[in-house]
Amino acid sequence: MDRRGFVKNTGLVAGGLLISKLDAFAGEDTGIIKIGVIGCGDRGKGIIDMITRLPEKFKMISVCDVLDFRLAEAQRYAKGQAYKQFKDHRQMLDDKELDAVVVSVPLNAHYQIAADALKANKHLYLEKTMTYDIPQALNLVKLVKSHPKQVVQVGHQYRYSPLYYRVKEMINKGYLGQISQVDCRWDRNGSWRRPVPDASLERQINWRMYKEYSGGLVAELLSHQMDFINWAFDTHPSEFQATGGIDVYKDGRETYDNVQVLLRYPEQGMVGNFGATCGNARDGYLFKIKGTKGTVSLLTDQGMFYPEKSLLAEKGTVDGVTGATRITWNKEGGTPILPEPTKDGTWYALNDFYDKVKSGQLPDSNIHTGAKTAICVHLANQALYSKAAAYWKDEYNV
To answer: In this entry, which stretches build a coiled coil (predicted)?
Structure first.
């Protein structure tokens, strides 16, 4: 189903499918958090824009980037807000006024900057994937344990979306029955290449294409869906198989532009299929969770539930699944999970970061869950580039 059809279908009201409202984002406003952003690329600028939309919770007092033109671009997203500029993140972290930092730099720099932020006693919002490799993930967990007063949240923002909370609740309550398959895609039709004003900056700007800096499509896109499955089922895969190649854009890149990852979750009796290509945008983002009683089909901001025909034949309606006495189905036999699309996931994630900094509580996307997903990404890439299966080890359980 394309996005246009998906949006049309979600215009229906879900009736009894709406489980009790989740109020996960309420928090007492006890003061403004003074925050800085390290890394002003595409993701960093998006976060700067979102921070300016939450003036009752955050005041951005500094930004940092090693590239001058990125610092200039950040000004347009700050909407005239005054702030300090730095090219060295360590100088920025020396500012005693600073309460918290967002780290949105190339993946290979995540660990060192996160470690420096913790040692500077700053709260930390660390973009996904948490770390570049497994040793960094395990070491960062140890470091966070030695800084118990610092809140560390990892940027897997779907853990904060009301839609994805609802789907997790449906899974936990057995509404989908026994789940055996997960099918995920995140496709695009484009090179993923950013313009480079100077050839010497190629690897800094297009870092996602080079193994020295990046985990490629698996880290940048598929990690979100892998993380949700880990969260929803309180699990992790045990076996990792993958294939792919540089099949579309033979332009000197090193990370693959066409990948398919197969994960096995033996405790759940479940197989996960995760794929991405830069050569076709028809499906875009798709996320399907398939059980014996029904299927959930998700976009980033809306979702549909499709009961199995046997369930409808048995009950006439799905009152045993949803508690509804009557549900209006669309022509494809589905019903929306929520009546309206949700906001950008970053909005929910930053609101929760504020609440957790104020309360000192552990975020849903925290150092332990972030490490688990970072390890999954690394093992998937290991299988992808070695052409051999990779396996989870007990030492990864942190």
So the answer is: none
**How far apart are alpha carbons 342 and 348 in whole angstroms?**
10
Averaged pLDDT for residues 155-180: 96
User: Which CATH architecture fits 33-158?
Assistant: 3-Layer(aba) Sandwich (3.40)
- Please provide residue 332's backbone torsions phi and psi, each rounded to the nearest 5 degrees: -90, 5
List the alpha helices (DSSP H) in the chain. Answer: 3-9, 42-52, 68-77, 89-93, 110-119, 134-145, 162-172, 202-205, 216-217, 223-233, 309-315, 319-322, 345-359, 367-386
Read off the tokens for 375.
Answer: 């390890």
| CATH class, 163-343+367-396 region | alpha beta
**CA dihedral for 344, 350, 356, 361, sign (positive or negative):** positive
> CA–CA separation, 80 vs 89, rounded Å?
22
Instruction: Count Cβ atoms below 10 Å from residue 318 Cβ, excluding itself.
Output: 23
Contact between 390 and 379 (Cβ < 8 Å)? yes
Query: pTM surpassing 0.85?
Result: yes
Nearest residue to 207 via CA among 219, 198, 218, 216: 216
The ranges assigned to domains in the chain are 33-158, 163-343+367-396
Cis peptide before 129 (omega within 30 of 0): yes
How far apart (Å, rounded) are the C-alpha atoms in residues 342 and 162? Answer: 7
- For 363, which DSSP code? P
Pairwise CA distance, residues 132 & 114, whole Å? 12
